[in-house]
Amino acid sequence: MGVHVVSKLDNRQHATFDLEVAQKELSESSVRIRTQLISLTSNNLTYALMGEFLHWWDTYPVSEDYPAPYNNSSAWGIVPAWGYATVEETTIPELTKGTLLYGFWPTSSTPTDLKLKAGSPEGHWIETSGHRQQLMPLYNRYTVTPTSRPISDLTTLNPLSDSARDELDRMAWTVLFIGGVAGFVLSEYVFSFNPRQPPIHPLGNQAGLHWTLSDGDLSSAVVVNLAASTKTARVFSYYLSRKSGSSTPLGLLQVTSAVSRVEEADRNLSASVPSKVVGYENIDSKESAEWLATCKPSKIVILDFGGRENALKDTVSLIKSHVGLQSCEVVIVQVGNEQKVYSMEEMIARRAAMEELRKIQFNTSGVQDTILESVGPEAYFATRGAQWEKWLDDRHLSVPGMQIAFGSGVSGVSGVEGGWDRLCHGQIRAEEGLVYKMQ
Questions:
Q1: Any residues with CB less than 8 A from the CB of 396 and at least 6 apart, and which?
Q2: Average pLDDT of span 327-352
Q3: Most buried by CB count within 10 Å: which residue of 21, 103, 147, 257?
Q4: Inter-axis angle of helices 162-176 and 377-393, to 10 degrees?
Q5: Which branch of life, at top level (predicted)?
Q6: 50-55: Cβ within 8 A, 24+ apart
Q7: Which uninterrupted H or E stretch holds 352?
Q8: Of 264, 265, 240, nearest in space to 252 by CA
Q9: Packing angle between helix 311-321 and helix 286-294, nearest 10 degrees?
Q10: DSSP bridge pairs for 105
C-alpha cells in the first residue's frame, strides 16, 4: 500500500513509499475507506500552493508512523484529490461495507478513517473530525454513489463489458471535471439575471461583498475566457452557451492553446452565443479587438481560468487601446491558476496584480454554501445532478478529443508519482485527462 507526499516548501519535491498500516478499532460514527479512483489536475497544484492558507493540508495530515522525514507535518503533506472510495469498515449502520462514496480523498492506497454525520439531502455525509473544521464545507461533503457493480470490478477486470466500460468512463469524467460544479455555479448563480434568485458574489455572500443584479447581468457584455480549454472553462462555456433570453451575453471570446478543439466544440454544440476562438499569440491582434468592438458591449467580463503568463495583461491592454472599447466596464474574475508551480516572487506579483487590476476571486465553496442557504440542498443538488448527467451525455461534443489516460497506483511513472511530476512541469496536454485506479 502506497502513500504520496509533497514538500510544503517546494511542491516540485515529492516522494512515495509503501506502508503497512496496523488496523485500529474504528471509532463511533466512522467509516474506514480505501481510495479507488481519483484524478490529477491543475486544481491539485492549487491545493498544494494554498494548502496552508486554506487548510487543504489539514484534510489528511501525515502520520507520525510514516518513515522519516515524511512524518514531519511542517515539511511534508498529502495533497487530496477528487474521486471515489469504498467503505471497508463501518460503525454507521446506513453506510454498509462496500458503499461507494464520492468526495475528497488522500492520494494513497492505504485505509483512511473518516468521522461522518448525516447531511442533507439523503445520501450526503459531512466530515466532522476536529482537524478538518477550518476546511471549506465543499471539501467536507461526501455523497453515496449508486453503482451496478463493485468499483473494484470496474477498475481491475479486463476486458470490461460495454455497459461496465461506459459506467467507468462516466465516473472517470466526473472525477476529472469534479462534477462540473465550479463551471455550473459560475454560469447559473454568479452570472444570473433572475430577480427571484439574486446573483451570488464570486466569493459567496458570506464574504459580505456587493454583487447586484447588474453585476450578474451579461446581456450587454462580452465574456472573455482565458485558458478556454481548461476543464472548468469548458463546463462554464457549455452552460453559458445554453442561456436564453435576457441572460445571454453578446459574445464569447475564447483564448486557448487548443484553438481547433474549442472551435470544434462550438460547431458541435451549435451554441446560441456568438463565439470567436483565438490563440494566445493573437489576443492583442487587431482582429480580436475589432470582433469585440463589433459586439458593441458596455461591459467586458474576463474570466481567468489559468491563462498563460501575459494573457490577462494583453487582454486588458487590448481593451484600453481600442477606441470602441475604452468606455466599457471591465470586470475580471480569477477562477484558476496556470499549470505550474509558482515561485514566491510569482506569488507576490500575483497578489499585486489582484489589487492593481481589481480582480475578483472566485471560490466554489463560498458560492455553493450561499446556494444551499438560499435555494436549499434538495433543490440545488437535484438540479446540479441532472445538469451534470446532461453534460456527461454531451461530453465528447463539449470537449472533443479529450482522452482519459488511466494510470495505476501511487508509485512510478504510471502512478500518481509520475502524474504529479508532469503536472509540476506543465506537461499535461489540454486533451489529456489523468485518472488513477488506486488498487
A1: 402
A2: 88
A3: 103
A4: 120
A5: Eukaryota
A6: 51/8, 51/77, 51/79, 52/8, 54/135, 54/136, 55/132, 55/134, 55/135, 55/136
A7: helix 344-356
A8: 240
A9: 60
A10: 81
User: Is there a cis peptide before residue 69, judged by omega within 30 degrees of 0?
Assistant: yes
Assign 3-state DSSP to the chain and report helix, strand, coil percentages, each to 5. Answer: 35, 25, 40
Q: Would you tell me how many other CB atoms lie within 10 Å of the CB of residue 1?
A: 15
**The three grid cell numbers given for residue 223, joined into one nine-digit string:** 465574456
pLDDT beyond 70 at 318? yes
pLDDT band at 208 (very low <50, low <70, confident <90, very high): confident
Residues in the chain, overall count: 439
Question: In whole angstroms, how far apart are CA 385 and each of 117, 143, 216?
Answer: 22, 12, 23
313: left (phi over 0), alpha (psi -120 to 50) or beta: alpha
Task: Sort strands 112-118 and 251-256 into parallel, antiparallel or unpaired.
Answer: unpaired
294/83 Cα distance (integer angstroms): 43
As a whole number, mean pLDDT of residues 78-82 equals 98
> How far is Cα 323 from Cα 16, in angstroms, rounded to an integer?
56
The pLDDT value recorded for residue 195 is 75
The answer to whether 235 and 391 are in contact (CB under 8 A) is yes
Give the three-state DSSP class for 221: strand
* pTM higher than the cut 0.85: yes
Whole-angstrom distance, CA of residue 49 vs CA of residue 341: 8
* Residue 364 clears pLDDT 90, i.e. is over it: yes
Cα 172 from Cα 83, distance rounded (Å):
8
Task: Say whether pLDDT at 246 is over 70.
Answer: no
- What 3-state DSSP class applies to 104? strand
The answer to whether 246 touches 276, Cβ cutoff 8 Å, is no
Cα dist from 371 to 37, 138, 202, 376, 380, whole Å: 28, 12, 12, 7, 7
> Residue 353 above 90 pLDDT?
no
- Beta bridge partner(s), residue 360: 333
Cα 54 to Cα 221: distance, rounded to the nearest angstrom = 33
Q: How distant is the alpha carbon of residue 33 from its chain centre? A: 23
Q: Which domains does the chain have, with CATH numbers?
A: 2-176+402-437 (3.90.180.10), 181-368 (3.40.50.720)
Mean pLDDT for the stretch of residues 265-281: 90
Verify cis geometry, omega within 30 degrees of 0, for the bond prior to 146. no
CB 78 within 8 A of CB 3: yes
The C-alpha cell that represents 296 in the structure block: 458593441
What single letter denotes the amino acid at residue 262? V
Distance between CA atoms of residues 58 and 68, nearest Å: 19
Q: For residue 181, what is the enclosing H or E element?
A: helix 181-185
